[in-house]
Every structure is written in structure tokens, then in C-alpha cells.
Amino acid sequence: MTPRRRRGGPAAPQLNEAARLTNELLAAGYTRKQVGDIIGRNSSLVSQFFTKDKGAAFVTALRDVVQEVQAGGASDVADLKRIAAPNVKRRLLKAKPGEAKPRRARVRTKDIVGTPGKSAMARAARQHIASGAARLRPVVANTAAAEGGKLAFTVRAKKGAFTHPAGSRIDSPGLRRGVVQRNDGTEERAYGASPGAGQGSGGFDAAEWKAKVDAAGGDVAAAVHGWLVETGRLQPDAKLTHLEVRGWKPS
User: Smallest Cα–Cα separation from 124: which of 214, 41, 225?
Assistant: First the structure.
């Protein structure tokens, strides 16, 4: 006797928490690529939340982002990335023989330089900053070319290099002041981010910043360093170890 076939197909696999939270962001209009940008990874890893049950390390960061979006707060990818950042940790590799502790896994990322009116971002580390950080220039120039273009940036330097305590409203006014402490004794501080729901889009005028960069001979890092010193936020002899510049045109 031929066995009777069960009605309906196999039950859909239950999503893990990272995939469920990602679905919340997808439903809110974000793409997998944007979710990857928010947690500092690529869309391939985000897809593996669904196909390979990965993503446990990002649950807290994703939950913070989902709560922010659902509350009607920050919606820009750059702002959501800063919200996620404190809970995004590097994966640890097993310690090799002779090593005292595990090593942090390397995360491959690439610079993103967009076109006028689009979201754009580029980063520079110590070596590129020392040579003029040319890769940051297109973000400033292209954003300035877009009417109403806005800029924000994140700087990284030794903790003692900043003149105001972390989170000070004098240093970076707004509801979200984006300070990230690093294990190497440095600190990241964000400037120009969205101040919060109902308080405008935030950001510095890109045209004004292009003028600052032009005055610094096209050196974005020098212009940012000069502004931080002039506004009393950074010690004059301090050196920036990392710099990220983001540009966008408010919708």
C-alpha cells in the first residue's frame, strides 16, 4: 500500500535572533547591504544569519538598532552604525602556541566613495593621514557639490588628547554623542551626527568644510585637526590615528 503523503510542505526553519532582528530592519526598508554596513560587515555575512545560523555576536547591536528605528529615532545608516558600534566586537581566533591570549580576527572592509547627493564614506588610518589622506577628499568634494550636502566625521586619538570628558555636551552636543573606547588607549569621537528624533538631520555644511579643506591644501585630516584645536576639543600637539568622513544629502 502506497503511504499517504502529508499535506503541505516542510515547516519553515525557525529564524535565529540575529535573522529575526534583521528581518525587522528589512521590513523597515533597509537592505541586507545596509544592515551589513550598520554592523561593520558585508551582506554575505548577513545572509549567513539565515542560511548558516550565524550572527549571535551581533544580536545586542542589532537589537539596539531595531529599537532606535522603531522608536522613530535615527534612521541614517551612518547614525545607526554608531549606535551599533559599542556592541560590535571582533571575533577572536584561537591562540597559537606560545601566544598568551587569542588574537582578534581581521575584518575586511573597503572604502566607499559615492556620487553627489548619495551617501558616501571613506576612512583613513595613521599612514594615510600622514600622507594627506587623499582618499577622503572625494567625499568632501562630492558632498559639497550636492545642494544641501552634509558632512560628519569620526576621529580617533589617544584619550588624553581630548580636552573635554567623554560624552560632554560641550564636545559634541546632541542626544547621541558617539564615544567609543578602544583597548589600545585611544578613543573614537563622532561629530556632526544626527542629534536625535525631531531635532533636524544634523551634519555640518559640506560647502563650508570644502572651503576648510581647500585652505588646508586639500588635506582633510589637517582641516579636521585644525577645527578640533580651534574649537578647544583637541590638544594642539595631538595626532589623529584614524579618521572617517561621511557625507549625505538630507531627504
Answer: 225
